[in-house]
Amino acid sequence: QVQLVESGGGLVQPGGSLRLSCAASGFTFSSYAMSWYRQGPGKERELVATTRVVGDSTVYLDSVKGRFTISRDNAKNTVYLQMNSLKPEDTAVYYCKRTYYNNWGQGTQVTVSS
Asked: Do residues 20 and 106 touch, judged by C-beta distance below 8 A?
């Protein structure tokens, strides 16, 4: 059974940083691309970042490029999202997803506010 468990969300001031973690189980983690999505209040869910398997390549939403970094630790079956220079518009529930599959975590709330 595939399980994805996010952690690391919270309240942070504008300009601050957070690191989200997603612990995966139930599949061979190192063989799959992984993604982070977010859904802000009153908005549709959007893809934030993806880390692929082949070539260790990454893809980012334009609005987070240069501020967010997705990474993975295959030994720990965990994918991370390092978020720096946070803005109020980054406020959302952040979800971890096994890319191309309908496997989602429960989400973790990130609130950027002074």
From this structure: no
